[in-house]
Amino acid sequence: MYSPEETLMNSFLYLKLGRRTRQELLAVQENFIKTFEIAQAKNLYFFQTTDSTFANRNTSTINVELIPTNRIAISDLEVGKVHTGKFVLCRVITKCVKLTALTTVIEDPEGDVERLSAYNYIPVNKIPNAKILSVDQASLFLPIGTILAIQNPYYKVGSQDGATMIRSDNPSEIVILKPDDKLLTQVGWKTGSNSFTNVKTETQNIPSADSFRVRGNEHFGKNDFTSAVDEYLRGIELYPQNVLLYANKAEAHLRLSQFIEALHNTEMALKLDPKHLKAGIRKGKALKHLKRYEESANVFRDLLRNPAIKNSLNVKLKKVIEEYRNQAQMLDSENKYGQYNYIEIIDEFIKKIQVRIGTKEWIYPGGPRLDHADYINNAIEIKHIGDKGRGLVANCDIPQHTLLIVSKAFEIVFDQEVPECLNLNFNRKIMNDAKSTELVTLIVQRLRAEPQLAQEIYQLYAGPTMIPGKDLDEKTLNIIDIERIEKIVYYHQFQAAYPWENFDQKRQEDCFESGIWIMPSYFNHSCVDANVQSIYLGDLMFVRAQRSIRKGEELTLAYFDQSNSYEKRIKLLKHFGIKCQCRLCKFERDEPNRVRQRRINIEKKLCSEIIPRISPRSERFSLSSSVITDLEGMIDELNSLGLTYPELEFLSLRAKDALSMTYFNIHRLTESMGIAHQLHDQMKKRNLFYWAYKFSSLLTLLYMVTRKAEKAKVYFNLALYEMVAPIIGDFDIRNSEQRSKALSIAEKLGMQFIPGEMLAELL
Ligand SMILES: C[S@@+](CC[C@H](N)C(=O)[O-])C[C@H]1O[C@@H](n2cnc3c(N)ncnc32)[C@H](O)[C@@H]1O
User: Fold this and answer.
1) What is the reported pTM?
2) How far apart are CA 584 and CA 76, in angstroms?
3) Which ligand 1 atom lies nearest to the CA of residue 576?
4) Cα(122)–Cα(147) distance, integer angstroms
5) From atom 22 of ligand 1, which residue's Cα is the shortest distance away?
6) Tens digits of per-residue pLDDT, 231-270?
7) E strand or H helix at 287, and its extent?
């Protein structure tokens, strides 16, 4: 159904401008291409809007049989309608431009023309070094002359220019027809020739298998793995007995993280040549990524028995196989026991991210996607939890800091992988950032390549109106359901941030990585009563018990920073449709308006007036005693508001934190220390390790400055534990081996609060 605004806009704008003529449309597209190229040459980013996403469609995708009776001519399309069960037969007549959608102009057999906007057709981050595709790059996806059948076409008025267009959100509904398709013999074209000479047809002169391999390798060399796959596939269609084409295609799939396809292609290659070494290695790798660790280790073990390898004919291959065999075996045990080598993981992460810190560019084209196994502790299970739907529950007592889940992102978009732009979705009155749009596209493309994965992704919650994926039948699982995918991204998009000083992104720019992690998606939310916490390293999410958890207790995660004010939390909870039952939400819901308003005013004053005066980097920084008077007054007022939960809320904590820092800066160290102790105890009691670490590190510094070395050591050890335990789990700080491991991690991630010369004393 359409909103009244949509209906009005559709009819009004259509009446106003209507469908454009061929000449107008070609001129518009030419102009669009020119403007785009100029903007691109100047390195300008596009701020663009999309007026609605799939929310308009009330029919689910159906596969349309491509027979003449189901064809609809452009002139018969009705504005504002999804023509379910129909398809538009057409050919591409201009070059393409890729903004959010891939846009081009098409012509149907009657000679009518229309603009086509194909959404989710190209993921940005799978095309290396090309956040914005050039017109030529984009046009490779739908070259001029390509014949298309656009199934279930949605005809609409574009919100920006008020002219008509065909919009397709689902790439599997755009079918590319071969020139010899039977349908084309049944339909005559009024314009141009019927032979589609623009499309490369290689029927007269059939190329050799090797020419496909060479062309595929050329694409591969340019990191364009999608085109490489296409090329190898075309070769395989003609030469299904060619081992090399399968083996190379497998590697291209590995690079695209399409592991099911990779495995399938290695198996085809090995069927033709069971001793093919590279196919064997790729099979082991694919199995590893599919979390079939034991099988993967067996493949590598067998490879090492291969006489060619045994006799060290190929030293390099032998090394690779040994490396992977060790890794697969380690992964197998990691997966069983959740033992990870954190130093190795952090090193890999830093190696992949380091250039980013300086210049915001990756060293690795794949960003910091890490190569480690998933893990799910068998102490947790998915259960139904009343009106919350499903959730995770402890099936035995779980000690604090226990590793519960290590999950590799199903898909992730790193900050610099997309241009900085926003999509306005007027229908849902929300703003999609470019990352969520890109996430949808990545998931769509992944499911197109590996439809089997729909099983796990479609199981996720997709809002109150959608049937849970568990009950979906085979047929539904086999379609790309854009609406479901969009909703899954809406409800499950985690935003990763790194809290450590060396990676404090907020300090550099307000940016996060966005991703979908399957198993952690089953945690329900709690603000202050959450009992698990997550930490991100690259595309890996580690979830640990924040405190000890009893058998039968539900495990909950704070979906957002619990230090947000009530008003902000309410907004975020609304996004998820949650009425949170944590202690703080319950208190704050019952508070009189007068108290609430007073607190809003205090928060405003603290953020806009006080903090800038006490932040050394701020222009308004000044160490005057009036700040102290203001802060003390603020804290008194917060106390007098009669809050029954001072230990739970963060506003008085922030004010006290500011006061403690101010005392420190003006050398009233005893007072500073008094507050820091109070705050540290409070945060420790709440198991908020990151906050506790903040105060234990301040206390270390205070004791160092006041020359109380023994006390300083105690707090230094506490700070070290509070920073590192959430990453590696519980450890004994008195054990010298464990302590030096923790120190090494702290150093890598940025434990920079102690000046170098003081640090030597503490160690
Ligand atoms: C990421 S999913 C969590 C798993 C979900 N419960 C399921 O059945 O798959 C988020 C959705 O779970 C529900 N949910 C999460 N936390 C909740 C809470 N504290 N109270 C009620 N519903 C909650 C909401 O519907 C929310 O949009």
Assistant:
1) 0.82
2) 58
3) 27
4) 18
5) 388
6) 899 889 888 899 999 999 999 999 888 899 999 999 999 9
7) helix 277-289
